[in-house]
Every structure is written in C-alpha cells, then in structure tokens.
Inverse folding.
C-alpha cells in the first residue's frame, strides 16, 4: 500500500514539474487539470455521503487521471521531471506520510462535522 502511494505521489510530483516544460503536450495538461478539478469539485460519480464508495471513486479516478497524464508525457520530459520528484522525496522523506495523514485527518474532520450537522 505504501509503495503504491509513493508511486502515485512520485507521478503527481513529476507531472507537476513537467507542466512547466514547453514540451509537455496539451493533453497531459488537460488530464492533470481534470484530476485536480475532480478532486476539488463537489461533483462526483458517487456522492461522498455514500459510505466508503463515496471516497473510493476519488481514490481511483484522481490517481488514474494523473497516471494517464504522466504516461502522455514525452520520455525526456518525464524522466527529467521524475528525477526532480525523486530528489524532492529524498530531501523531504516525511512529506508523503504528512500529506496522507493530513488528507485522512481532513476527511475525518469533515465527516464528523457533517455527521454532527445532520444529527443535530
């Protein structure tokens, strides 16, 4: 599980670094924008109020779009961006666990607040 999270994080960071490169195709930029929009907008395939499945679609769609966008990058751009991503992960090894725990904590707080609002 941790290896998979690190791979998704590596691809997301590599894609972020690659977006600034002039050789990055428009399709990769649009896929990355789509992943960001899907993660941030309240419109989902399955509503977040649906237990487990509501968050599961986010956990599948967003990394899938990011991975697809990373695969549309030209090889030299992807390798350069991936090198920068790995260098950042080596310098900041606590970054991935902090982001994952922060996301889980935020989701838990939002769920608790929603539960309180609906219960009372």
């Amino acid at each position: 599980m941790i290896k998979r999270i690190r791979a998704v994080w590596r691809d997301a960071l590599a894609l972020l670094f690659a977006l600034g490169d002039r050789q990055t195709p428009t399709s990769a930029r649009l896929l990355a924008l789509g992943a960001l929009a899907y993660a941030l907008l309240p419109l989902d395939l399955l509503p977040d109020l649906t237990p487990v499945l509501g968050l599961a679609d986010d956990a599948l769609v967003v990394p899938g779009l990011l991975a697809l966008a990373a695969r549309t990058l030209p090889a030299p751009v992807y390798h350069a961006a991936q090198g920068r991503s790995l260098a950042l992960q080596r310098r900041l090894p606590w970054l991935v666990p902090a982001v994952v725990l922060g996301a889980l904590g935020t989701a838990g707080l939002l769920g608790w607040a929603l539960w309180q609002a609906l219960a009372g």
In short: Residues 95-119 form the longest helix (25 residues). The chain has a mean pLDDT of 78. Helices lie at 2-18, 26-40, 53-71, 75-91, 95-119. The chain is about 80% helix and 0% strand.
